[in-house]
Automatic annotation (TrEMBL):
Keywords: Cell shape, Cell wall biogenesis/degradation, Hydrolase, Peptidoglycan synthesis, Signal
Pfam families per UniProt: Peptidase_S11
Annotated Peptidase S11 D-alanyl-D-alanine carboxypeptidase A N-terminal domain residues: 106-331
Disordered, as annotated region: 75-96
Annotated positions binding substrate: K300
MF terms in GO: serine-type D-Ala-D-Ala carboxypeptidase activity
UniProt-annotated catalytic positions: S136 (acyl-ester intermediate), K139 (proton acceptor), S191
Domain of life: Bacteria
Family named by the database record: Belongs to the peptidase S11 family.
Listed name of the protein: Peptidase S11 D-alanyl-D-alanine carboxypeptidase A N-terminal domain-containing protein
Single Gene Ontology BP annotation: peptidoglycan biosynthetic process
Length: 352
C-alpha cells in the first residue's frame, strides 16, 4: 500500500510543481512551444516562496520532495549537459521548440546567452529574445556595413567638427589627418565615437543613408528584433536581443578585418601631422585568454545608462568547439567580464 501511495503523491507533486530549487544551481528545461519575446527560458527565476517551501515538520512532504528529486534525476539529463538537437528550418537556424536551455539563478545581468556556433542553438539563456539597448555593440553592425563601402584602407581622412561625438576619452581632434584603417581600429579597439562617425563619413554616405544600409544588412541576416537608428551606439533606440547579437557576432567575427581589430589589445599610429595616438582595448578579457585550452576570438563592449554594461564575445577550445557569449544589462564594468567568464566555464566544463 505504501508504494502506490508514494507514487500517487509523486504524481500530485509533479503536477503541483512543488519541488524545491536549490539556490545558485543550474537547471535544464526542454522547450515544447515557441518562445515569446522576453520570456525567461528554462526554470523561472521568480518562483514564489509558497511553491518553493515544504513544511519542515511534515515528514511525508520531505519524503515526497526527496523522491521527486530522485525521480526527476532519472528522467532528466545531468546538470550541465544540454540535450543535443539537430538544426532544422532555414540555414543554421535551430527549431526553438527543441532547444535545451539552462537558467542560472546567479546570472545577474538582465539578458544573456551562450550560443553554440555549430548549430546556432542556445546552451544557456536568460530573456534571450527580449529587445534591449545594445550601446556600442552597435559598432559591430557599423564596421560590418562599412566593409561594403570601404574607400581604401590607406585613404586619408581629415577629422571634421561634425565628426565629434561625446562620450569616453577624446583621442581625435578636428584637423587630424588619419587613414581609414586608423579610424576602423580606433572604432573597434577603443570604441572611439568620433572615429566611428568619421569612418561612416569616409564612405561618402550620409549618416542617415548609412543607417539605412545597416538595417538592410540586419534584415538580410534574418535579425527580426534588431533596429538601429545611429551608427555610433549613443542612442537608446539601437535595439537587439541576446540571441540576435550572438548570431550576428558569430557571422561578423569570421570576417578577418573585424576579427583582427577586435583582438588588438593596443593600437597606435601617427597622424599625417606627426601626432602619436594610442588607444587601448575596452575588452579586458583579451588579457585573460588563452587559458585552459580556451581562446578568445574577439568581441565588443557597450555601455549606456539605459543598456547597462554589455559584452559579446566568441571563444573556442582546443577541440574546436566554438561559442558566442552575450551579457546585456550587467550592473558594472567588472561584472560583464566576470559573468562572461562564468558562462565560458559553464559551457566548457559541462562538455563530456
Amino acid at each position: 500500500m505504501l508504494i502506490p501511495a508514494a507514487i500517487s503523491l509523486i504524481i500530485s507533486v509533479l503536477f503541483l510543481n512543488l519541488s524545491p530549487l536549490g539556490q545558485g544551481k543550474f537547471f535544464i528545461a526542454h522547450q515544447s512551444k515557441p518562445i515569446d519575446a522576453g520570456q525567461v527560458l528554462g526554470v523561472s527565476e521568480k518562483i514564489s516562496e509558497e511553491k518553493k517551501s515544504i513544511e519542515p515538520n511534515v515528514n511525508l512532504n520531505k519524503t515526497a520532495a526527496k523522491m521527486l528529486v530522485e525521480t526527476k534525476s532519472l528522467l532528466s539529463p545531468r546538470p550541465g549537459q544540454p540535450i543535443r538537437q539537430p538544426s532544422s528550418g532555414a540555414a543554421g537556424r535551430p527549431d526553438r521548440r527543441r532547444e535545451a536551455i539552462m537558467v542560472n539563478e546567479d546570472f545577474t545581468a538582465e539578458n544573456g546567452a551562450i550560443l553554440s556556433a555549430s548549430d546556432n542553438s542556445l546552451f544557456f539563456a536568460k530573456r534571450p529574445d527580449q529587445p534591449w539597448p545594445i550601446a556600442s555593440i552597435t559598432k559591430l553592425f557599423t564596421v560590418y556595413t562599412f566593409l561594403d563601402f570601404n574607400p581604401g584602407w590607406e585613404k586619408s581622412y581629415e577629422i571634421k567638427a561634425a565628426d565629434k561625438r561625446e562620450g569616453g576619452k577624446i583621442y581625435l581632434f578636428t584637423g587630424d589627418r588619419v587613414t581609414v584603417k586608423d579610424l576602423f581600429y580606433f572604432s573597434l579597439v577603443g570604441s572611439d565615437n568620433t572615429a566611428t562617425a568619421a569612418l561612416v563619413q569616409a564612405t561618402g554616405l550620409s549618416e542617415a543613408e548609412f543607417v539605412e544600409k545597416m538595417n538592410a544588412k540586419a534584415k538580410e541576416l534574418g535579425l527580426k528584433n534588431t533596429r538601429l537608428i545611429d551608427p555610433i551606439g549613443l542612442k537608446d533606440g539601437n535595439i537587439s536581443t541576446a540571441r540576435e547579437v550572438a548570431v550576428f557576432a558569430k557571422i561578423i567575427l569570421a570576417k578577418e578585418d573585424i576579427n583582427r581589430a577586435s583582438l588588438t589589445k593596443k593600437y597606435e599610429f601617427k597622424t599625417e601631422q606627426g601626432r602619436k595616438k594610442i588607444i587601448v582595448s575596452t575588452n579586458e578579457l583579451l588579457d585573460d585568454y588563452p587559458k585552459d585550452g580556451i581562446s578568445i576570438l574577439g568581441g565588443k563592449t557597450g555601455y549606456l545608462d539605459s543598456s547597462g554594461y554589455c559584452l559579446v564575445s566568441q571563444f573556442k577550445n582546443y577541440e574546436g568547439r566554438t561559442i558566442v557569449t552575450v551579457v546585456l544589462g550587467a550592473d558594472s564594468d567588472s561584472s560583464r567580464f566576470s559573468l562572461t567568464r562564468k558562462l565560458v566555464d559553464l559551457y566548457y566544463q559541462a562538455q563530456p
